[in-house]
Specification:
By secondary structure, this protein is mainly alpha-helical. It has helices spanning 8-12, 21-24, 33-53, 60-63, 66-80, 85-97, 109-118, 121-133, 157-169, 184-193, and strands at 144-145, 173-176, 179-182. The model has no long low-confidence stretch (mean pLDDT 90).
């Protein structure tokens, strides 16, 4: 079965922004259709919000490009291993964010979606939670001490520390001396998901 079939109603909502309904009918991907269906509900909400609040910022050329189709497939594949609705919402938000124009430096959308697919649910939770722990004005200039006793809601200190290590291995965080700092890759993730003031 075509795993993109459950996404068709959400994708058709982009028709007013320039996505051809006949073109998306020919798109296909092989993935878990049940997970694609769960992702579709979140995509519908994100695309509706995009068509409202962000309609003037949509990159219409990208929307009609093969790159967008490739990123839809990438999002469906990322959804296959998502263990929670929170992770599915994060994937949907990132895919919707791909449709926006960005000032330079422009995020590498495919690379960022691929990375989001690699994040575990816990790493995603910690990444989002870091924006509550870092300076809200300049989160990318701030740091988290490696030996901090801070954590995010629902995780022990050890789980938080393990997630920081995982984020470091994925290139989202970098260790500078005794501190963790966000990288340029983290900035791309934040830009597409519209968190942290991006």
């Amino acid at each position: 079965m075509n795993a993109l079939t459950p996404l068709l109603p959400a994708l058709q909502a982009l028709a007013p922004l320039g996505l051809s309904p006949t073109a998306i009918g020919a798109w296909s991907a092989y993935a878990n259709p049940e997970q694609a269906g769960r992702l579709a509900a979140h995509l519908e909400a994100e695309f509706r919000a995009l068509a409202g609040a962000y309609a003037g910022s949509v990159d219409h050329a990208y929307l009609r490009s093969d790159a967008f189709r490739a990123n839809v497939v990438q999002a469906v594949r990322a959804a296959e291993v998502a263990e929670s609705d929170a992770k599915l919402r994060f994937i949907a938000r990132a895919l919707a964010g791909c449709l926006l124009n960005f000032p330079p430096p422009t995020p590498d959308k495919f690379q960022t979606l691929r990375l989001i697919g690699e994040l575990s649910d816990r790493e995603t939770h910690v990444f989002v939670g870091l924006f509550d722990l870092l300076d809200p004005i300049t989160p990318f200039e701030d740091h988290i001490p490696a030996g901090t006793t801070a954590t995010v809601a629902g995780l022990t200190r050890q789980e938080f520390a393990a997630a920081l290590l995982g984020l470091g291995q994925l290139g989202v965080l970098v260790r500078e001396g005794e501190d963790w700092k966000m990288t340029a890759l983290a900035r791309q993730v934040a830009a597409l998901t519209r968190i942290g003031g991006e």
